[in-house]
Amino acid sequence: MSHTNFNMRLDNDLRQKAYPVLEQYGLTPSQAVRMFFNQIAQTGKVPLSFDWGQSHTLSSNGEKLLRESIQAFENGETERFDSLDELNQAMAEIARG
Question: 32 — alpha (psi -120 to 50), left (phi > 0) or beta?
Fold first, then answer.
Protein backbone atom coordinates (compact mmCIF):
# COMPACT_ATOMS: atom_id res chain seq x y z
CA MET A 1 0.00 0.00 0.00
CA SER A 2 1.41 3.39 -0.93
CA HIS A 3 1.03 6.44 1.27
CA THR A 4 0.51 10.14 0.67
CA ASN A 5 1.50 13.00 2.94
CA PHE A 6 -1.35 15.35 3.76
CA ASN A 7 -0.61 18.85 5.06
CA MET A 8 -3.21 21.38 6.13
CA ARG A 9 -3.42 24.78 7.76
CA LEU A 10 -5.28 25.05 11.02
CA ASP A 11 -6.21 28.18 12.92
CA ASN A 12 -4.32 28.32 16.25
CA ASP A 13 -7.50 28.95 18.25
CA LEU A 14 -9.21 25.93 16.68
CA ARG A 15 -6.11 23.82 17.34
CA GLN A 16 -5.99 24.87 21.01
CA LYS A 17 -9.65 23.90 21.42
CA ALA A 18 -9.61 20.66 19.43
CA TYR A 19 -6.35 18.99 20.45
CA PRO A 20 -7.29 18.57 24.14
CA VAL A 21 -10.54 16.88 23.09
CA LEU A 22 -8.64 14.45 20.89
CA GLU A 23 -6.23 13.79 23.77
CA GLN A 24 -9.18 12.88 26.01
CA TYR A 25 -10.01 10.15 23.50
CA GLY A 26 -6.37 9.06 23.34
CA LEU A 27 -6.10 10.16 19.72
CA THR A 28 -3.46 12.07 17.86
CA PRO A 29 -4.63 14.55 15.23
CA SER A 30 -3.30 12.22 12.53
CA GLN A 31 -5.31 9.31 13.92
CA ALA A 32 -8.47 11.43 14.09
CA VAL A 33 -8.11 12.60 10.49
CA ARG A 34 -7.40 9.03 9.36
CA MET A 35 -10.54 7.83 11.20
CA PHE A 36 -12.54 10.60 9.53
CA PHE A 37 -11.32 9.61 6.07
CA ASN A 38 -11.90 5.89 6.77
CA GLN A 39 -15.49 6.62 7.77
CA ILE A 40 -16.06 8.57 4.55
CA ALA A 41 -14.54 5.76 2.48
CA GLN A 42 -16.59 3.05 4.21
CA THR A 43 -19.95 4.83 4.19
CA GLY A 44 -19.75 7.14 1.20
CA LYS A 45 -20.94 9.94 3.50
CA VAL A 46 -19.36 12.74 5.50
CA PRO A 47 -19.81 11.76 9.17
CA LEU A 48 -20.89 15.18 10.36
CA SER A 49 -24.16 16.79 11.27
CA PHE A 50 -24.72 20.03 9.44
CA ASP A 51 -27.71 21.01 11.56
CA TRP A 52 -25.63 22.13 14.56
CA GLY A 53 -26.65 25.74 14.04
CA GLN A 54 -30.34 24.97 14.28
CA SER A 55 -32.09 25.69 17.51
CA HIS A 56 -33.19 22.59 19.40
CA THR A 57 -35.88 23.07 21.99
CA LEU A 58 -37.85 20.74 24.20
CA SER A 59 -41.54 20.24 23.77
CA SER A 60 -43.67 21.69 26.56
CA ASN A 61 -44.10 18.17 27.97
CA GLY A 62 -40.37 17.49 27.72
CA GLU A 63 -39.61 20.73 29.54
CA LYS A 64 -42.16 19.83 32.25
CA LEU A 65 -40.61 16.39 32.73
CA LEU A 66 -37.12 17.87 32.88
CA ARG A 67 -38.17 20.39 35.54
CA GLU A 68 -39.83 17.62 37.56
CA SER A 69 -36.72 15.47 37.31
CA ILE A 70 -34.46 18.31 38.44
CA GLN A 71 -36.77 19.05 41.36
CA ALA A 72 -36.88 15.38 42.39
CA PHE A 73 -33.09 15.21 42.23
CA GLU A 74 -32.73 18.37 44.32
CA ASN A 75 -35.18 16.95 46.89
CA GLY A 76 -33.19 13.74 47.16
CA GLU A 77 -36.00 11.72 45.59
CA THR A 78 -33.69 9.51 43.58
CA GLU A 79 -33.08 5.80 43.58
CA ARG A 80 -29.57 4.34 43.60
CA PHE A 81 -28.53 1.04 42.11
CA ASP A 82 -25.54 -1.08 43.04
CA SER A 83 -25.02 -2.39 39.53
CA LEU A 84 -25.92 -1.81 35.93
CA ASP A 85 -27.93 -5.04 36.00
CA GLU A 86 -30.10 -3.66 38.82
CA LEU A 87 -30.66 -0.44 36.89
CA ASN A 88 -31.58 -2.34 33.72
CA GLN A 89 -33.99 -4.52 35.68
CA ALA A 90 -35.68 -1.48 37.22
CA MET A 91 -35.98 0.16 33.81
CA ALA A 92 -37.50 -3.01 32.35
CA GLU A 93 -40.05 -3.09 35.17
CA ILE A 94 -40.97 0.54 34.51
CA ALA A 95 -41.35 -0.21 30.80
CA ARG A 96 -43.70 -3.11 31.56
CA GLY A 97 -45.84 -0.78 33.62
Answer: alpha
Q: Which mean pLDDT values do the consecutive 10-residue runs of the chain (97 residues) have?
A: 88 94 92 93 87 73 89 88 90 87
Q: Tell me the CATH architecture of domain 1-47.
A: Orthogonal Bundle (1.10)
Residue type at 78 in one-letter notation: T
Q: What is the pLDDT of residue 49?
A: 77
Q: Are 24 and 51 in contact (CB under 8 A)?
A: no
Q: Domain map of the chain by residue range?
A: 1-47, 60-96
Residue spans of alpha helices (H) in 3-83:
12-24, 29-43, 60-74
Helix (H, G, I), strand (E, B) or coil at 79: coil
